Amino acid sequence: MNTKQFTDMYYIDRKKNDSVKWQRGVKMDCLPMWIADMDFKGDQKVIDSLKEFIEKGDYGYANLPKDYYDVLIDFHRKRHGIEYKPEWIRFTKGAIDAMYQVIYSLTELKDGIMISTPAYPPFYSTVKESGRKLYTTKMIDNGGYFTFDYKDIEARFRKGKISMFILCSPHNPLGRVFKKGELEELFELCKKYDVLVLADEVHCDIIMPDQEFYPALSFKKYRRNIVSICAAAKSFSLAVFSHCHVIIPDPALRKKFIAYQRHTHTGSVNVFNALSTYYSYKYGSEWLDGVIDVIYENYSHFRMELSPYYEMTNLEGTYLLFVNIAPYNKDRTAFDTLVSECNILANAGESFGEEYSSWVRINLATSPANIRKAVRSLKKLAKEKQDQACS
Length: 391
Ligand SMILES: Cc1ncc(COP(=O)(O)O)c(C=O)c1O
Known about the structure:
Layout: H1 3-10, H2 20-27, E1 31-32, H3 44-56, H4 68-80, E2 89-92, H5 95-106, E3 112-117, H6 121-129, E4 133-138, E5 140-142, E6 145-147, H7 150-158, E7 162-168, H8 180-192, E8 196-200, E9 226-230, E10 244-247, H9 251-264, H10 271-283, H11 285-306, E11 311-312, E12 320-324, H12 334-342, E13 344-345, E14 347-348, E15 359-363, H13 368-390
Parallel strand pairs: 1-13, 3-4, 3-7, 7-8, 8-9
Antiparallel strand pairs: 2-10, 5-6, 9-10, 11-12, 12-15, 14-15
Pyridoxal-5'-phosphate binds near residues 36, 94, 96, 120 and 168.
């Protein structure tokens, strides 16, 4: 299926639904390109399978399908060459919930937790609200290609107050799919200073054609020091179902996590929500390949048209592009400039780190027609500002 056929078949007008993204867009008279979900409905076989469950009308207590773990493991083996074990996998109701549970169960109140910036906003809030001390390390911007500052990370680790590093891989908002060597260097430092890695890998399946994703747990040498958060929610746009996996190979860490879930009664799985993941992993691979092609085409068009005017990240994975609006936003934030001059609702750069107010995060998981519309208004903005500067 080519990208036009995919868009014709799966793009949905979400204005008439209770979509958080579109309702805010309509209210502000903007094209919504913010919050991380997609404007595509799922594969028909996934929809039909969920319908079939609903129509049976049996809503009593239920078990997961017998082959739930096989389907999940098979999906990740085929896509990423990793072999998860069923006993490593626990459930939570979403990735943020998973982060809180991992922090509460595997760190102490006195512990420090490091994140690299710019960072997905809940990385800041989960650490702060769980009462742990937040440490940040700024990523190095090599003209829109951001990398870890290992020297800074090591210098802070050396002081001995940090016990966890939260990694976002692939990276939101930077769209980075880290190279094997980059992850190895980070994991080596974490091992050396006894810092546990919490790898948020919820974007792991949206990988651009020329990239390779290395799951954190594929690094066997560091496996016992890593907990992975992984879900189908981003890959198949299933946010409404709030279902997520926490993967913990180390038995001692797992024991602590399970004990926490028992105490807090958070370990039980919502079977209906889990079914959306199960059917998507089982039947959705072709759909996923199709949506990646659309995102890549959207990105290629965006980059080709706008890179002469704007600094932007390389989209290696995810569908989220970080774009620098400077020098067209003078006294305003990039977010405000886009709302008032382009009628585009993006995510404000400063929500990812206070120094990024000239940046916005733009969601590319929409129709090529919407992307063209956004490109036209961004180009107009840049040209008008350039003309004003010349006159
Ligand atoms: C990196 C990352 N982690 C976690 C989440 C939130 O996931 P959930 O809605 O499952 O809590 C998102 C949502 O965009 C995300 O991008």
